[in-house]
Fold:
Amino acid sequence: MSDILSRFLKYVNICTASDEEADTFPSSPFQLAFGEALTEECISIGLEDARMDSHGYVTACLSPNTDKATPAICFIAHMDTSPEASGLNVRPVITENYDGGIIHLDGIDLDPDEFPDLKNYTGSTIISAGGKTLLGADDKAGIAEIMTAMEYIINNDVPHGFIRVLFTPDEEIGRGVDYLDAASLGCDFGYTMDGGAIGELEYENFNAASAEIIIKGKSIHPGTAKGIMKNAALIASDFATLMPSDETPSATEGYEGFYHLCDIKGGVSEARLHYIIRDFDAESFESRKRFITSLVEKVGEKYGVSVECTIEEQYRNMREIIEQHKETVELAKDAMLDCGIIPKIQPIRGGTDGARLSFMGLPCPNIFAGGHNFHGPYEFVPLESMEKASELIVKIVEKAVGRKA
Structure:
């Protein structure tokens, strides 16, 4: 597993931020460049049929080296990083033999009093960003773990069935499998290496939708505006205050859903609000969508303006599918125990490509990649967690031999 650090540092040095405003796929050209590099690396370590298609999907495989009936498994990670923080000129900071104290970065601190998870990694090697960018462990840690595991399996002739690797673009903006033919992967099930802390094993995620609200105001010269002007920006502000303040990301946890105002902008003539809606329960999810629609109608009536709302579903809770394929969870759980990892089965307060793939016929639980504080400059990942994740992939492959597909 000695190459995992060098791989990871090489990967995070490549900017692959996705772009929600783009109408191309992938949404940024950097991802195609990264995909080409990963394809070449797949070939160099001995993976078969390595290719990147016109949509930027990178795939490669290993043919079985055992006669025992064994399920075909796909290991998946995404190439893009979140557009919520800069991924350009990432300057990783490596803190060896972490002493449990504050890690001082450029302009910010990783303080265990603020981020208690740090206390779990005393004595470990902590990799963080420099303070001005995100790190990119979400999900370049996953890619490094898969590549390192595949190289180990090849070099050590580990018994295995058919294995596919898949690296996707644009996962962070919810488009990761928009153009993927899941059946062409030829696998019985898969695992996304896209979770957080060591031990995480997840097969429940949010039902998710986006809501785009457009308010049309009436612009009049402010000197003669009395009784006539309809200030769309002020109406948008009022709309935001009418949303439940105790149902936001910062006020919820566990199985609690939320509304998240991602963006608000505009002026007198027009204003826009962009929300995401999240809930684990399908019925509550539908209720949330109805609430936003009803509020749009009330605000439009209150101010006598046009308020339009477009709600688009993004993904669904994969538990509906994985419950029918619990052997996928049991295999990962057993492999974790063999590796000395305590499984932490919990819901994902987010989503993965695996959620959508599960509904496309490829059941895909999610496994830890090791990182913390994703999507911002406080992101970090312990090296030892990445090493364990790679070891776990190998163990899953070993334990799958002879199991019923």
